[in-house]
Write a structure and sequence with these properties.
Blueprint (H helix, E strand, L loop, with lengths): L8 E6 L20 E5 L5 E4 L5 H10 L6 E5 L23 E6 L6 H8 L15 E6 L8 E5 L2 E8 L5 E8 L2 E6 L11 H7 L4 E5 L18 H11 L3 E5 L7 H14 L3 E3 L5 E3 L1
Parallel strand pairs: 3-4, 4-5, 5-6, 10-11, 11-12, 12-13
Antiparallel strand pairs: 1-2, 1-14, 2-3, 7-8, 8-9, 9-10
Helix pairs in contact: 3-4, 4-5
C-alpha cells in the first residue's frame, strides 16, 4: 500500500453505548456511539463498528490526503448503535473510495444487512447516490473458537461472546501489537467468559465493554453488557498490558465516568477511560 505514515495508532471516534448523548454533562468523554479507527504504518485502515462516531471520521478521511482510498470496516454486531453512522459516512458518496464492510451474525446475513442499510425506505437516498465501490463480506461463522482472516497486511482474529442476538470479540494485530475489542458482552452466571479470556490473553491493549457500575449491573441482567469491574477482572486474568474502558451507559455523566476510571485503576493500574478524542500511538 502507498502513503506510509510515521507510526500506527488507535483513535476513538465514539465511545458511548446504546444511543448518542449530546448532553452538557457528557461532553468530555463524548456522546457518539461506537467507532474506533486503527491505522497501520503501511496505511492499512481498519474501522471497528460504524456507530455515530464514524461521521466525524468520514469527514477526516475526506479532508486528510494521507489516507488511502481503501476503507475496511469490521462490525462486532448489527445493533443500531453500532451501525447508525453508516448513512453519514462521507466517503460513501465519493467515487474515489472502496469501502469493504465485514460482519457475521447467525440470524442476519451481511446481504440482509446491506439491503436494510442501502434502502430508501429507511434513508432518503437513492442507491445511485452512493458513489463509492461498496462491498459487503460475510465472515466465517463465529463460535467460541478463534477464527482468523487477513485484510491486506493486517491479521484479524475473532470469536463470539454472549450478547442478545450475538456479537464478536475482535483482535487486530497491528505492527506486532495485539489490540482486542470486546464490546456488548455479558459475562453470565457470575463467570468471566472463556472465549473473551482466550482472545484477550496477553494482548497489548484490551478495549472492553464497561457499560455499568458494579451496583447498576444486577438491574440489567439479560441486557448484554459488562461492568467496569468485569473489565478489570478480564485484564488481570488475561495478563494484558493496558485496559481501555469503553461503551458507557448513556445515563453516565463525565463525573460518573471519572469515578469509574479511578475505581478501575485501583483494581488494574494501567486502566484508561476512553473519550472520543483519545489517540494511542502503537
Amino acid at each position: 500500500m502507498e502513503n506510509n505514515i510515521n507510526s500506527s495508532y488507535i483513535k476513538f471516534w465514539g465511545v458511548r453505548g446504546s444511543n448518542p448523548t449530546p448532553d452538557k454533562d457528557k461532553m468530555y468523554y463524548g456522546g457518539d456511539t461506537s467507532c474506533i479507527e486503527i491505522r497501520t504504518k503501511n496505511n492499512n485502515l481498519i474501522i471497528l463498528d460504524m456507530g455515530s462516531g464514524i461521521r466525524n471520521l468520514g469527514k477526516k478521511i475526506i479532508s486528510d490526503k494521507s489516507y488511502n482510498n481503501e476503507i475496511n470496516i469490521i462490525l462486532s454486531h448489527y445493533h443500531w448503535d453500532h451501525i447508525m453512522g453508516f448513512f453519514y459516512f462521507a466517503p460513501l458518496y465519493n467515487e474515489k473510495y472502496t469501502i469493504n464492510i465485514y460482519g457475521y451474525n447467525k440470524n442476519t446475513s451481511i446481504n440482509d444487512l446491506s439491503n436494510h442499510l442501502i434502502n430508501k425506505e429507511f434513508w432518503p437516498v437513492e442507491n445511485s447516490m452512493y458513489k463509492a465501490n461498496i462491498n459487503f463480506f460475510e465472515m466465517e461463522e463465529s463460535s467460541s473458537e478463534l477464527k482468523s482472516m487477513d485484510i491486506n497486511d493486517t491479521k484479524i482474529c475473532y470469536s463470539s461472546h454472549p450478547h442478545p442476538g450475538g456479537a464478536n470479540s475482535i483482535r487486530v494485530t497491528c505492527d506486532d501489537k495485539k489490540i482486542v475489542y470486546v464490546t456488548d458482552c455479558e459475562h453470565t452466571d457470575g463467570n468471566l467468559n472463556q472465549s473473551v479470556l482466550n482472545i484477550a490473553k496477553e494482548c497489548d491493549i484490551l478495549i472492553h465493554d464497561s457499560h455499568y457500575t458494579v451496583g447498576d449491573l444486577p438491574g440489567y441482567k439479560g441486557w448484554g453488557h459488562s461492568s467496569w469491574k468485569q473489565s478489570t477482572d478480564i485484564a488481570i486474568v488475561s495478563r494484558i498490558k493496558k485496559l481501555v474502558l469503553f461503551h458507557y451507559s448513556p445515563d453516565y455523566s463525565d463525573e460518573k465516568i471519572k469515578e469509574i476510571e479511578a475505581n478501575a485503576q485501583k483494581k488494574f493500574i494501567n486502566t484508561l477511560a476512553s473519550n472520543q478524542e483519545l489517540l494511542i500511538e502503537l
